[in-house]
Amino acid sequence: GALISSAIAEETGRTPILPSSIFRDKIALIGSNAPGLLDFRNTPFTTYEPYPAMEIYATMLSNLLQSDFLIRTNSYVSICVIFVFTFIVCFTFFYSTKIRIGMIWFLGCAIGWLLVAFALFHWQRIWVQLIAPEAAIMLGFVASAVLSYQAEGKARRRLRSIFSRYVSPAVVSDILEKKEEMKLGGNEITATIFFSDIKDFASTSEQMNPKDLVIFLNDYFSLASEAILQNQGLLDKYIGDSIMAIFGAPISNENHAELACAAALDLQQMVEKTSKSLLNRQNQKPDSSTRIGISTGEVVVGNIGSQHRLDYTAIGDTVNLASRLEGINKVFSTNILISESTKKLADKVFLVRQIDKLRVKGKQESVLVYELIGRNEQISEDTARLVNRFHDGLRWYQERAFDKAKKVYESILTSHPNDGPSYVYLDRCQEFLTSPPPINWDGVHIMETK
Fold first, then answer.
1. CA 357, CA 337: separation in Å to the nearest integer?
2. Which pTM does this prediction carry?
């Protein structure tokens, strides 16, 4: 109203409220901000409170006059940003060993670009693309997750298929769940080594034609593999009629000694139960009695070999001792011999008897050797008495009372004529009664053969 009154006053020669000189060289916008006139508009910055349209026009005019414009970045900048962030998200997701690392990078890229866009807009009036990069980051993450899931699932299935031939399903599951903890390539661990072979296999193979021999071995190896895998062992290799297995690798297990002993007993029982179907091939009856040697101790396990051929296996004195124990069964006519270290870890579950104190070929130190008899809860009273009587004879033998030891072993053979260790000690006692050992004799028997 004051503007119109001033115009009329100047026309009539009176003094105006607002002289026209005020508006010289200026731009005037005439409008209304009365709510009833409905001249209000929404802007990106006035979501909840409508803004007068005249104010919007005035702001636009001011920006034009002062060259105060938003700076919109080139489309190439957006393309580069999309490429960089998508690459980072995909790369970290595929090559990181932990999914949470990929998630952290994804959230970092998404939130980081959001903060950068707002900071540039607020302080530098630079308008960058926000939606396209954010959408690209999201799509890259989703695509990477889907592809990684499919690739990992395929790899896990392949790994499970391969390892299931060597280890039990329970061990395979542990390998897949703890694959980042597996360090292949040479780690020193405590494990139990298992060696087995077939009694008198050389003479047996001469009596069979090649086809029947292969069938016989496949049947036997199937039984042995089942016994080992059921007890979470790793089938290391087949060597002729022999089997090497590792308990306690590639996934550590505190009960590896007990599991190896259980596998040995299970294999003996399986061979006995299936002896009729296993041994009667074209009326041929090869002896499939199994000799087993078990030793526990420090071994080096990992991928060992050359650049062209690697084999996951174990090496060390413990491996050599297990192999020697398997062969020593021939001397005592026993089936399962274990080392003292294995006995210490397993004697709460299994009954064993001390067989001898030996110095095997290739080793300077003597070792105590034990025969694995069976599980404690399955031992009969007669077997328990046999073990106790045998230990009585062994004590007399070590004290050089060879006449008393001889009587004990003769008594054992009267009731148990097939006890091989008693025969061995009876022969030794007779020999020492004729030719006594030297004064410094420590009871150690030296094995001249492997």
1. 12
2. 0.65
